[in-house]
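Students often ask why we bother encoding 3D structure as a string. The short answer is that it lets us treat folding as translation between two languages. Here is a chain of 754 residues written in the first language.
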Amino acid sequence: MARPRRLILFLAMLCALAACGKKPATNSVVETPAEPAIVPPDAEVHAQYAGSSTCKACHEAAYASWAASNHGMAERNFRADLDNAAFSPPRAPVYSGAKTDAFLDKDQLATLLSQDTGASTPVSLKVVRVIGHDPLRQFLVSAPGGRLQVCSDSYDPHKNEWFDVFGGDARQPGDWGHWTGRGMNWNSMCAACHNTRLRKNYEPSNDSYHTRMAEKTVSCEACHGPMKTHVDWQNQYPPVGAKNDPTIKRQTREQMLDTCGACHARRGELTGDLVPGAPFHDHFSLTLTDASDIYHPDGQVRDENYEYGSFLSSRMHHAGVRCVDCHEPHTGKRLLPGNLLCMRCHAGGTQPPAPVIDPLKHSQHGEGSPGNDCTACHMPVTTYMQRHPRHDHGFTIPDPLLTIRHGVPNACNRCHTDQSAEWSHQHTEKWYGEKMDRPTRTRAFLIADARLGKPEARDGLLKLLPAEPVAAWRASICHLLGRWVNQPAVSSALRDALKDPSPHVREAAARALLPPARTNNSAIRTALQPLLEDSSRSVRIIAAWTLCDSLDLNTRAGKELVHQLDLDADQPLGRMRLSQFAHLRGDTPAAIRQLRKAITWDKNSPPFHHDLALLLNASGDHQGAIASLRDAIRLDPNNAEYPYKLALALSESGDIPAATIALEKAVQLDPDFSRAWYNLGLARNSSGDTPGAIAALRKAEAAEPSDPAIPYARATIHARLGQRNEAAAAARRTLILQPDHPHAGQLLHDLGER
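And here it is in the second language, the structure alphabet:
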């Protein structure tokens, strides 16, 4: 099914870096080498596929199971036997742009949709395919430029009714998430996971697609890989040669997991060429628990994250459990019902041994009760797209205390909706006692506190990073430590993590080190340099991205980065990255053009206006920067970063009173915004409000007690006011934080304290 999720990335471009020499000729959206050669041509690849129909003769049972499964029905042409029920009998459409009272067939649906495209002249549309099968189906509409667009109005075959996947959140023509927008574009957002060995084939010169695939839907070869040589062998040597078939290459359990994860993960694409059995991290960048709210602090899914990331974070995965231990691969269904599946391991006798569990004693719920179902507690269900309930594969432990402290959902209250989290907490403490105070709780508290910027969380994460046994969680810790990357202890820990055996950890550490690397921190840039030759493509690309200001684009990592940037050039976020790339390579005009293209495609994303403002400001267009920041504030009035940046732009334009007002708004929105308080102190001081300046700087120091610039600024104000004791104390505080501070020692000397 389509992924109607807004992908917004807050990446600030903090400074212009020098251009990097010659600019070779380009044959792509970005400045690129002459021979990018990352993926082979479509025809060459697709010729290796035989098609699912060739499997049926020898694998009849597996074929029948697959053909009726959600994989077998992932995408198909419109079929009267399956789809006419959606259009008959007549019914009132839920579609927001409806101009009629009922429709009967897909042609009338197309007519209905044509009235809501936002076009000034009539648009001829055609419903051509169906994507998804159970529990919901969406219809694909042909559009100019080789596009297929996904209707937000979807059909529920169980209830025989239409519904809006956005749940009534109205999307207007021109919005990224409207069914005509790029957020609902099949070629970019859906096709790769609903088909076999798909090539998006975006053409940037005319903003069109020439999308091709080896076979429509998730076919046999989508998981087993290309099988033409196998089919040819079997046809040439029947039936005696079958046992000695040299073309059979069985995937390992790890390869099968990565094959499943390729589509069952929230991830960014690196190659646009899904190769079954290849390592996940060679084709994708995985989204894990980080400083955002995509996941809850304990790893439970919040946003639409699918299963793979959660599963990698679980103790089950760490213990060696894999997809095929629980799911029949051809139907996708569970191997056993109820607790029987879990008890295959938790009844004892397995290697490696799993904890032996008596479901009745463990659950404290009677047999047959929903609370006695292992999955109800450890794999709670979240419903996405209004009708698609999915089990969380993090195998987390219900903990009402996390709900009380940080609002994290717990399975107890998902069921006992008439009770409070305090009630659930009392019961879990009574039943399990000290067992509830486990490392997973400690980790969740640290993550929740780190998201709030609490210094004690930083210290806890630094201790946890080398001790955490699960690689996915070590990666999460690296992401979270990025908030404090400029502090020596954090920087050192992240540099150590660059040598972690897991590519997910190395990638996360490199990503966290990006800000100081971009400001030419030589030690960090030196530490990142070897990652350009890392064994994992995801690590090579993030290293190339981090060092792209000086990167030789003709190297392997350089070509891979350019390929990824080209791959994403059909989406606003991709244009944002192209803008950043151009800016970092010294071409600010190109960066501005790319970002304006992103805004044309998605005018309602505040980060695009924010980053355009930074570029305009860097180019000397202060008024343009101020206007863009006001657009960002209009779209996201509760984001403290935007009035803060507006204040900086206003200050550069010389409007200190307006800058002061903007900074006061920033700290009102985020009382712990240390840099806003710091700049507010400077602004008030320049306006002659020294008491207000000192008060603001004290707020800044309370919010970020490890920043030596803050007490030093306060020391200079105290000194100018003749407040020698206060000035000396603040200067000493500066030297404690930074013993080699270039000015604090001199200030103490001038005060007669040295």
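Translate back mentally: Residues 1-26, 95-104 have pLDDT under 50 and may be disordered. Keep this in mind for the problem set.
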